Amino acid sequence: MNLKILQSTACCAMLLCGVMQASAQADITDNGGILTAQYNNTNANENYPRVIDNSVSTKYFTGGQTALWIRYQSAYPAIVNQYTLTSGNDHADRDPKNWTLEGSNDGSSWTVLNTQTNQLFTARLQTRTFPFSNSVSYLHYRLNITGNNGSVDTQLAEWELWATGVATAPDDLSATALSGQRVSLSWTDNSTNETGFVIERSMDGVAFQTAVVTAANVQQYTDSNLSASAPYIYRVRAQNAAGTSAATASASVITTGAPVLADITDFTEGVISDQHNTTGGEGIAKLIDNDLYSKYLAWASTTWMRFYLPAGAVVSQYAIVSGNDAPDRDPRNWTFEGSTDGTSWTMLNTQTGHKFTGRRQRRLFSFPNTNSYTYYRLRVTANSGSSITQLTELELFGTGSGTLNTSAPAAPSGFTAQAVSGNQIVLNWTDNAVNETIYKLERSTDSLNWNYSREIKPQNTRFHSLELSPFTTYYYRLRAENAYGNSAYAHVKATTPTNASPATWQEHWFQHNKLLDRVYQDGEISVYYDEAVSPSITWMQEDFSGVWSYVKENYGTFSDPTLYLIFHGATYSGGHPATVFGADHDYRNVSDVGGVWTDRSGWNLGATTHEIGHVVEFAAHGVDGSPAFGIWGDSKWAEIFVYDVYKRMGWTADEQSAYTDFMNNVDDFPRAGTQWFKNWFYPIYSQSDSSACLNRYFVLLAEYFPQRNGKYERALNMGEFVHFWSGAANFNVQRHADTAFGWTDQLEMQFRQAQIDFPFTYPEPSFFSPMLMKAPVLTTPAEPSIRPNPASGTVYFTSPDPAQTYNVDIYSMSGAKVAASRVSGTNVPVSVAGLPDGVYVVAVSDVKGKIVRREKIVVSNSRR
């Protein structure tokens, strides 16, 4: 909400009259507190949060109620001595008539501060002020309405609570990361009567906690004891006896990383135990098994976990990985301790109010320690609200003596191959290894020449072998690998059947049970009708053959070169897609739509193209699923997809019609009044490389977003969504997100975390024009940098020392060097124009051959 400050002035009676600040008033409903109400309205546009949204054009309406209360819990206690009420936009008989204002410091015992009876609002949207005497600070304020002006319903547009004497809010807050996981904060002091400044910190942008309260007249503070390589967001308030000011605008920062040390929990002599002697499938042994898909779960809200290493170790870092579900089970408060006897403990690190913002999220903490201990203990004193506590992993880093497991990983077993179509074989196996770093899968058509290989991450047990040829026998071998050796191979083979589309196709999905007839096929599509569609209708054949050809050109193969188009009569409404990952449609890419198909206009063209867009969304680049579906819903991605298809097909009239329709669309997600096409997709599309940008989003998802067994593991959050579209556009699209969705502290923190978790880069709009696509003007970094990532045609190298010469070598993922340059300076172009689309490793080395930077980049040249 907007900060509102009222200034009262005093004039001197001397010859030189001046104006000075005597006191300041602030509306405490702006300070980020909690509003509750006796009655809820299921219509969000007229629910109780609207009564403090600083907009008289909205209101809180409750039907069938003439007596009710609304309550505000301030972020901090404040002395309120006046309040305002604003009447609704209509129906004067719904206005409050009789009420009391009450204060409380515990939310249970209430003191009446002001009583009003027989009040009348003489106009619509009229704001009336009600002053009263009060010198007591309260945390809770309640408006208790006991009657209105005659209606069975009650409404109110705005409620404000004005605190007097509150210090003026500070501003100009900045946050800078310092070494050692510290953050330097500075701000401007605008107040003359504060007793101190309240510094608030958050890791999710929602729940802020007080980090410290400084003395008066302080304008700097250094925060410490923070997690490494983690985002934090801060705000500062001025405080005095009258209460606490509104907060500064928030400032976010990412803390510095920590040195890489050995994990002593990998020593085989180590013994892990816990307070509750937890055993079984979610027992204490799972806490140090290096498996993100297992966890330790204690049936208690508090617990301790102890690691014993007979030879001892000097530990100066530890990391905790949150569980796979149930955030309320996450540790919130804990201590980390060391001991030489398991009885007397030395405190090494304490964390209070910690917030894990994601599942399986790793947080690392550093602390000074030079003493060797044989016992280390993590003691959870409070979790995030559940009666159960869980962690996925605990890692302890430092120096110590012990034996590492240097054995090769166990071989997989139960290796099977199922040929599900003429272009796909599904492989399954049992993961028997506990120490593998990768699985290596190889393929051959003769069992002698293994000309295909793929590295698969640990803990996977399924792989979709795609883009195969029909009537071909494929041989596969699979082994587990680690730094110490490789397991034996597991072998399997399978033969693909025909990939020809059948003359008839019996439906067996949802409520569909028709026997479909194939009426057309070419190299791109196979078209099927039910009995309600006349075979004389043929307009869709050429059109959608061209559409599917373009889709494969822009987005990739989708394994099966054929798209199956099913056209039902009007007895079936709507439509649905299917992809090569689904058995329900026989592992085919499908658009299935019902309608009256006599011409290509309106629904007929748009709905079918829409469903093809879902095929792209759910199967692009060989991964099953759409992590963004929960954000953009059924139709928002489809709008930009449909527009792009019409444009690339040269259907000018359809393109213009779609543009006009989509520009006018308004949705209520993720907030009311969102215009997805107008304010999000079209600006990104038009300011980037359009069609290539749309594809690059899916390229980045397939390369970076978590997958298991060929499927995306989870949904994107909104900050990740903005980050991936920034990578797709080749510039930071945060400004577009602010316009389209509104930029909140929560979104800022999600975005910052996404930049850590998925480290592809893109320029900021302040120094990059996406329309011109020129080399960005970069400040000199602390180490060599390569931008942008993803790249088309050219990347730009910048050195921290322009006089230093570097070797820039580019390798394919198989390890072959595909390009080499010798460069120095800033913004030096390095061509990648001759490389096929794909993922490459860029290695930057100095003149002595020492590699000083290595990173993956995505090259997308064919669709620039």
CATH-defined topology of the largest domain: Jelly Rolls
Domains, number: 6
Strand content: 35-45%
Distance between the termini: 42 Å
Which residue ranges are poorly predicted, with pLDDT under 50 across at least 5 consecutive positions?
1-23, 766-781
Q: What's the average pLDDT?
A: 92
CATH class of the largest domain: Mainly Beta
Helix/strand structural class:
mainly beta
Question: Which superfamily, in CATH terms, is the homologous superfamily of the largest domain?
Answer: Galactose-binding domain-like
| Biggest pleated-sheet summary | 8 strands, antiparallel
SS summary, helix count:
10
Q: Which oligomerization state do the chains in this entry correspond to? A: single chain
Please name the CATH architecture of the largest domain. Sandwich
Instruction: Determine the fraction of residues in helical runs and give it as a percent range.
Output: 10-25%
Radius of gyration (CA) equals 32 Å
Q: Count the strands? A: 53
Which outline best applies?
globular
